[in-house]
Design a protein that fits this description.
Length: 226
């Protein structure tokens, strides 16, 4: 028995005509790259599907997401209903067994799509958790990011970055790339435009930025205001 609403996307989308009779074949994906952040030379690969394929993917997510959502681990936050704005259902489904394995072993973890942090009380515990993750990832045919995957003592200078924040010695603030990005966005909107449009645009950017980084140390905001 399927959810009553699952027929709606198929009936409304002309691009899906005939999908009931045979599975639609995906069109080619447009490939490209973009720079990760301001000041970084690292590039992230992009795959842009055709509009028809995006419609099919949306219809499938509409049906599949409620099914998989019931089994998702509590500490998985990325791109889930009520927890995120974008879609990464495949990453959540694929990594869900690892979530439950970590939970069963007693390791606290926070995951956002394919980015995650494991919280341990000792270096030995952190090394054991990392080894368990490496073994699971290898068996699943995946790889860990060679630069981002590391053991860090967050009580000492250095800390680590996660989801735009920098965590260190009990404090958190926007990582350097996040600060550079908002400053670049402020200055890039100033040329060749009317003052009223500039003010509206900059205020919208700052409201979103402050809303996300509102948990930072207070000294951060004087830097951005300047």
């Amino acid at each position: 028995m399927r959810p009553p609403s699952c027929k709606a996307p198929l009936r409304r989308c002309g691009a899906l005509a005939g999908a009931r009779e045979r599975p639609p074949r995906p069109w080619g994906i447009s490939r490209g790259t973009r720079r990760q952040n301001s000041g970084s030379q690292e590039k992230r690969p992009l795959g842009i599907p055709a509009v028809r394929d995006r419609i099919v993917q949306g219809a499938l997510r509409h049906v599949l997401e409620p099914i998989f959502e019931r089994d998702m681990a509590e500490h998985s936050y990325g791109f889930r209903p009520g927890r995120g704005a974008k879609d990464a259902l495949l990453a959540n489904v694929y990594l869900n067994p690892l979530d439950h394995q970590m939970e069963k072993a007693g390791w606290e973890r926070v995951r956002y799509a394919d980015d995650f942090v494991i919280l341990c009380r000792s270096e030995a515990g952190a090394q054991a958790a990392l080894e368990a993750v490496r073994q699971w990832v290898s068996e699943a045919g995946l790889t860990l990011h060679p630069e981002k995957t590391r053991v860090v003592n967050a009580t000492q200078p250095g800390g680590f970055d996660f989801r735009g924040y920098h965590f260190e010695r009990g404090w958190k603030w926007p990582r350097r790339k996040s600060l550079l990005k908002v400053k670049d966005r402020k200055t890039s909107r100033l040329e060749g435009r009317q003052l009223a449009a500039i003010v509206t645009d900059v205020n919208r950017t700052l409201r979103g930025w402050y809303g996300y980084f509102q948990h930072s140390h207070a000294s951060v905001f004087t830097q951005v205001d300047g």
